[in-house]
Amino acid sequence: MTSLFSSTTIGPYTLSHRVALAPLTRMRSEAGDVPGSLMVEYYSQRASEGGLLIAEATAVSVRGNGYLGAPGIYADTQIAGWKRVVDAVHAKGARIFLQLYHAGRQSHSDLQPGGAAPLAPSALAFDGLAHTKDGWQSATPAREMTLHDIEVAIGEFRDAAARAQAAGFDGVEIHGANGYLVDQFLQDGSNRRTDAYGGSRENRARFLLDVTAAAASVFGGERVGVRLAPGGTFGGMSDSDSSATFAHAARALNELGLAWLHVIEPRVSGSQEIVEGAHAVAARELREFFHGPIIAAGGFTPQTAAAIVEAGDADLVAFGRHFIANPDLPHRIRHGLPLNAYDRDTFYGGDHRGYIDYPAAPQSVAA
Ligand SMILES: Cc1cc2nc3c(=O)[nH]c(=O)nc-3n(C[C@H](O)[C@H](O)[C@H](O)COP(=O)(O)O)c2cc1C
């Protein structure tokens, strides 16, 4: 039986355990969407020998930004900030991938160059929030992307991957989940296009495959992971045949020799609490179509994480909220130590509080 604390391989990298940091938007970057010292400390605290961190959703372009305070990787000036984060994590013996994202319609004209409308596959009303200089605001209506816009966005993912590589990241993860641009193309509730990027599930998966291939052209497929949320509804998502859509996406991604497929269980919606008693199902379902490493996420406890890895339905488990509150989470899980509780009020934005001041387990207990 495989344990959470046995070694495993991700692309060219050997990990010594399977407790990963899930990508978490914390909105603590500095002016210019550049990571600063707070972020260096946050990631360094969560790095452990042989562990894997997936850094938060990071905009591939100004157009892709949906949250003021979230970092970017669209300008060369952001490379140096990220390099400090990467170097601190590597010094602790961990690997770190950067999650690349484009918010698409989950944005606001105040965040867009020249106050333009956010971009989306189709100009459908979206009932959700974006974080602007005036706080959380309803997203503004999006404009349907032209084929040229799509080509530009794919190029932005490629350029972002190249900057991530220049910053020293071990790889990148494409954010195909939670109702952002890639997910908006994939699921038919948000994609009404009639060209090569809409209609059939093959066409709706094209943007996902194109941006993944663009990142792989920089890093090689074995250093690129993809995150999906099968049946996910966060960000106003819906699909008329979710099982078939995600089976197709997983099967097509399987051809690319990727580092991993990262699956968010539908029992969680974004950062909300899990549906009481709901079991993990999605990782097991997609295992049939994707034969590389699978990372499961969404509502795991130390016990259920151990169980899914032992059952062979996932190779790693990514933790979000527990990792926010427990910088030494792998250590605590390994030794059966109690977990700190998380404070939801400090999830998004603010200062060091609720970010880098959660205590590690006392050394005497840890021994
Ligand atoms: C504060 C917060 C920020 C998040 N930001 C991201 C993000 O940037 N990218 C992403 O793919 N998921 C994001 N998520 C979702 C988490 O990665 C994870 O899927 C979710 O929290 C469920 O896992 P958990 O039950 O272990 O917390 C976020 C969740 C939280 C709580």
UniProtKB/TrEMBL annotation:
Residues 3-340 form the NADH:flavin oxidoreductase/NADH oxidase N-terminal domain. One of its GO terms (molecular function) is FMN binding. It comes from the Bacteria. Keywords: Oxidoreductase. Belongs to the NADH:flavin oxidoreductase/NADH oxidase family. PANTHER family: NADH OXIDOREDUCTASE-RELATED, OXIDOREDUCTASE. This is N-ethylmaleimide reductase. SUPFAM superfamilies: FMN-linked oxidoreductases. InterPro entries: Aldolase_TIM, OxRdtase_FMN_N, Oye-like. CDD domains: OYE_like_FMN. Its cofactor is FMN. One of its GO terms (cellular component) is cytosol. Pfam families: Oxidored_FMN.
